C-alpha cells in the first residue's frame, strides 16, 4: 500500500468517530464551518496553539474529487508550523519547474508526440543528494490526501472536533459572541462561540448569511478535471506542462511520483470551450475519451484508464470583506480564481496561516483591538488577492488560449522572458507574489495600528523595496505568472 492510500484508509476510521459534541469542545472559542483543506488547516493550526475548535461539515466525509494539488514554498512553510511537512514531502512529489507546450504532434506512424516545448521554467537544479534547495521547489500532494492527513492530525490533537453530516443554517452575533445554528439529521442545535470562521467554499452559506458581496466574473469556458492512469516510457524531471491552444488548452501534471514503465496517475485538466455542451454531456464517457485523445501522447489506441472526472466552472471573484464582527471568511468562501497554476488552494491555506495567529492573539488578549486586527486580516488578504492572485491567475489562463501556439514563443512577453532565463528578470516577475502571499501578522501587530491602514501600507512599501532590491526573495515562482 502506498503512503497516500494508507492516509486515506486511516481517514475512514477517523470519520467514524462519535458525532456527540464533547464537553471541552462545546466550550470551543472558535467554530469553523467547512472541513475542506482550509477549515481543517485552521483547526490544526489553532490546536497547535492550544486553541479548541469545532468544525462543522455538511458532507459525510472529506471530499475525494479531483481538485487542487500543488503546494508552493510559502505554504510548505505553513505545513512545517502545522507539523505535516515531512509527511507531505514524503508522500508527495517535488517539482522545480514546468513547461508550456504546443498541442500533440502526429509523427505520421500513428504515434502522437508530446507537443513541442514553447518555454520552460526551471526554478533550481536537483542537488547531488537528490533534493532541491529549500524554498525553491513545489510539492504535488493531492487535495484529497491533504484533507485526509489534516483530518487525521486534527483528530489526534483532541483539541478540535469535526462534526460530519452537520450543516450550518444560521448565524446570530452580538458584542460578546456568536450563536451558530447547526442541523444534523433534521435536528437543529445552537452552539455559542466567540468567533466563527466561514471556510465553507465558493457557495459559502456564511458569506451569504452576512450579506457580503462576491464580485468579479465567471469565465465562459469550463474545465474538466480527469485523473488518468497510464504508463509512460520516459519522464521529464519536471513533467508538468500547460497546453497552449485556442480551443484545446489545458494542464497536464502527474499526481504521484512517476516511474517509467509502470502505471502512474496523471491529471489532465482540459478546456470545455463550447458553451452549448451541458455539464452532464461534458462528463459523458465518449466525450471525455475523445477529448483525452487530443492531450494524451503515445501510440493509438491509447491504453490509459480514466479513474475519475469532474467538470467545473471557473471564476475570478472576491468577497467585499473577509470580516464582519466576530465572523471571518477564508479560502474559497472569500475568493475564487481559475486553477491554472494552482494559486487558489495555496491562497486559502495562507489565509488561515495568519488567521490562526490573529485568533490566537485575540483570545490571549495580546492585541489591544480585536476588531481592528480582524479588519487588518481582511484588508491584507483582500489586497493579496486583488493585487497579485487575481490578475496573475487570469493572465495564466489567458496565456494558454489567446496565443497562437506557433507564434507564442516570440509574441508572448512571459514566454520571451522565460526563454531569456535571466534570474534577475525572473525575480522581478515572480518576486512580488511570493513576498506578499504569506502574511506576517506579528510584524503588523508590533506597530499597534491606529485607524486606517497605515501599517499595512508601510508593510507593502517595505515589501516593494525588498523585491526591487532583489533581496530576501528565496521563493521563486513555479507556474506562478
Ligand atoms: C474541480 C475542481 C478542481 C480544482 N483544481 C484546483 C487546482 O488544480 N489547483 C488549485 O489550487 N485549486 C483547485 N481547485 C480549487 C481548490 O479545490 C479550492 O481552492 C479548495 O478546495 C478551497 O478549499 P476550501 O476549504 O476553502 O473550500 P472547499 O474545499 O470547497 O471546502 C468547503 C467545505 O465546506 C463544506 N460546507 C459548505 N457549506 C456548508 C454548510 N452550510 N455547513 C457545513 N459545511 C459546509 C463543504 O461541504 C466543503 O467540504 C479546484 C476546485 C475544483 C472544484
TrEMBL record:
Transmembrane residue ranges: none
Alphabetized UniProt keyword annotations: FAD, Flavoprotein, NAD, Oxidoreductase
One Pfam family cited in the UniProt record for this chain: FAD_binding_3
Superkingdom, natural source: Eukaryota
FAD-binding domain: residues covered: 27-389
InterPro entries: FAD-bd, FAD/NAD-bd_sf, PheA/TfdB_FAD_monoxygenase
Matches recorded under SUPFAM superfamilies: FAD/NAD(P)-binding domain (SSF51905)
PANTHER family (UniProt xref): 3-(3-HYDROXY-PHENYL)PROPIONATE/3-HYDROXYCINNAMIC ACID HYDROXYLASE (PTHR43476), BLR0106 PROTEIN (PTHR43476:SF4)
Protein name: FAD-binding domain-containing protein
Organism: Knufia obscura
Amino acid at each position: 500500500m502506498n503512503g497516500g492510500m494508507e492516509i486515506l484508509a486511516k481517514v475512514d476510521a477517523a470519520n467514524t468517530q462519535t458525532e456527540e459534541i464533547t464537553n471541552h469542545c462545546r466550550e470551543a472559542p472558535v467554530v469553523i464551518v467547512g472541513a475542506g483543506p482550509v477549515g481543517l488547516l485552521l483547526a490544526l493550526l489553532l490546536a497547535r496553539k492550544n486553541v479548541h475548535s469545532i468544525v462543522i461539515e455538511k458532507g459525510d466525509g472529506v471530499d475525494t474529487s479531483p481538485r487542487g494539488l500543488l503546494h508552493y514554498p510559502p505554504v510548505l512553510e505553513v505545513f512545517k508550523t502545522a507539523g505535516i511537512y515531512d509527511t507531505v514531502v514524503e508522500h508527495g512529489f517535488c517539482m522545480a519547474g514546468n513547461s508550456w507546450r504546443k498541442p500533440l504532434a502526429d509523427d505520421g506512424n500513428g504515434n502522437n508526440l508530446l507537443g513541442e516545448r514553447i518555454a520552460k521554467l526551471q526554478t533550481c537544479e536537483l542537488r547531488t543528494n537528490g533534493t532541491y534547495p529549500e524554498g525553491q521547489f513545489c510539492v504535488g500532494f493531492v487535495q484529497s490526501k491533504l484533507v485526509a492527513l489534516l483530518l487525521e492530525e486534527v483528530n489526534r490533537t483532541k483539541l478540535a472536533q469535526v462534526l460530519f453530516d452537520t450543516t450550518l443554517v444560521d448565524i446570530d452575533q452580538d458584542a460578546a459572541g456568536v450563536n451558530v445554528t447547526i442541523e444534523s439529521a433534521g435536528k437543529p442545535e445552537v452552539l455559542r462561540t466567540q468567533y466563527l470562521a466561514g471556510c465553507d467554499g465558493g457557495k459559502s452559506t456564511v458569506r451569504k448569511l452576512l450579506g457580503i458581496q462576491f464580485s468579479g466574473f465567471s469565465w465562459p469556458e469550463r474545465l474538466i478535471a480527469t485523473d488518468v492512469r497510464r504508463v509512460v516510457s520516459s519522464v521529464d524531471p519536471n513533467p508538468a506542462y500547460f497546453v497552449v491552444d485556442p480551443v484545446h488548452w489545458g494542464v497536464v501534471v502527474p499526481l504521484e511520483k512517476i516511474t517509467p514503465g509502470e502505471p502512474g496517475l496523471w491529471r489532465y485538466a482540459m478546456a470545455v470551450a463550447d458553451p452549448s455542451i451541458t455539464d452532464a454531456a461534458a462528463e459523458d464517457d465518449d466525450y471525455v475519451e475523445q477529448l483525452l485523445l487530443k492531450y494524451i501522447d503515445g501510440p493509438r489506441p491509447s491504453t490509459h484508464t480514466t479513474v475519475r472526472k469532474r467538470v467545473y466552472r471557473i471564476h475570478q471573484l472576491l468577497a467585499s470583506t473577509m470580516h464582519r464582527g466576530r465572523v471571518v471568511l477564508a479560502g474559497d468562501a472569500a475568493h475564487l480564481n481559475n486553477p491554472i497554476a494552482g494559486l487558489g488552494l495555496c491562497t486559502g491555506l495562507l489565509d488561515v496561516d495568519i488567521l490562526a495567529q490573529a485568533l490566537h492573539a485575540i483570545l490571549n488578549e495580546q492585541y489591544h483591538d480585536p476588531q481592528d486586527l480582524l479588519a487588518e486580516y481582511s484588508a491584507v488578504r483582500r489586497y493579496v488577492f486583488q493585487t497579485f492572485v487575481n490578475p496573475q491567475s487570469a493572465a495564466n489562463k489567458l496565456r494558454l488560449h489567446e496565443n497562437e501556439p506557433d507564434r507564442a514563443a516570440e509574441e508572448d512577453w512571459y514566454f520571451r522572458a522565460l526563454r531569456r532565463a535571466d534570474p534577475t528578470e525572473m525575480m522581478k516577475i515572480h518576486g512580488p507574489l511570493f513576498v506578499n502571499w504569506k502574511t506576517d501578522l506579528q510584524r503588523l501587530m508590533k506597530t499597534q495600528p491606529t485607524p486606517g491602514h497605515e501599517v499595512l501600507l508601510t508593510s507593502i512599501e517595505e515589501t516593494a523595496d525588498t523585491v526591487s532590491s532583489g533581496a530576501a526573495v528565496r521563493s521563486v515562482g513555479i507556474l506562478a505568472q
